[in-house]
Structures are given as structure tokens and as C-alpha cells.
Design brief:
Length: 151
């Protein structure tokens, strides 16, 4: 577990009409203050990686499909500096993951359909100062293997 990363199970409430899940509530003490909510998607087999924020906190939930989340702690002074972490999120694993500033992260789509990812950030995106760094998904210093592992 990377220091500062928080994982919360998403509770679905089904009834005869469908399902409902509360992803983000302003009175949830486990979430950062609200800045922006946006939706991104990841196609099966596509990789959206790597990026991190200097100051911004991201909270991710895959609400349809499946995605593999890779995390890498590159924060000097962190108790988990240099550690990798992976999680599978989505239809079969309804989780909400909080990613603190300075932690590199990326997603890879899995399965037959596009993964739909809802993202809450504690501050809105600023086009003049986007508060992000990006690295190539594979050609970088992060020792994470995106290949499928059939065991």
C-alpha cells in the first residue's frame, strides 16, 4: 500500500429499477474538498499513463467496464518511496481510490468494453497551470509492467 493512497469500496444499492451508488458526497470526511468532477474513458487494451500532480489530489472510480490502475510512489521522504501498487477497478471490483499529490498513476482498459472513469479532484483544472507531469506509458523510469499476465 502506497502512503496516502486510500481505497474505499463503492456500495451499490439495487432495486427493481436498477442500481444507485453514491460516489462523492461533500459530507464524506474521507474525501478532499471538491474542485472538479470529470469523466474519462479507456478503450480495451489502451494505456493512459503516466501522470502525476504536484498539488492536486485525484479520486477515481470506474463506473462501467474494467481498468487496471498502476501507481508508483516517487515522493522523496515518503515511507513508501519507490513502491509500486496495482488495483483492478470496475464492474467486478467497485472501488474508489484516492491518489495523493506526487504519486504517478495510469490506467489500462481491460475486457470487452470501454472503461468509464469518474474523477473527482480537489481543485479545478487550470489550462494556464495544469499542475501535471506526464511520462510515456512504457518508456520511462517506472518499473511497472502493463503486459497481461496469464498464470
Amino acid at each position: 500500500m502506497i502512503e496516502g493512497v486510500r481505497i474505499d469500496r463503492i456500495e451499490w444499492r439495487p432495486d427493481e429499477r436498477g442500481r444507485l451508488a453514491e460516489l462523492f458526497r461533500s459530507d464524506d470526511g474521507n474525501l478532499p474538498s471538491f474542485g472538479q468532477v470529470h469523466v474519462t474513458t479507456v478503450l480495451p487494451g489502451a494505456i493512459k499513463a503516466w501522470h502525476r500532480h504536484r498539488e492536486k489530489t485525484d479520486v477515481l472510480a470506474v463506473v462501467s467496464g474494467m481498468a487496471r490502475l498502476g501507481l508508483f510512489d516517487d515522493r522523496q521522504g515518503s515511507a513508501t518511496y519507490g513502491e509500486l501498487m496495482e488495483l483492478f477497478l470496475g464492474d467486478h471490483q467497485p472501488l474508489r481510490v484516492t491518489i495523493p499529490p506526487g504519486v504517478w498513476f495510469g490506467l489500462k482498459g481491460y475486457g470487452e468494453k470501454e472503461a468509464v472513469v469518474v474523477v473527482l479532484t480537489d481543485r479545478p483544472y487550470d489550462r494556464k497551470d495544469p499542475d501535471e507531469e506526464r511520462w510515456h506509458p512504457v518508456a520511462n523510469e517506472i518499473p511497472f509492467d502493463w503486459d497481461r499476465r496469464d498464470r
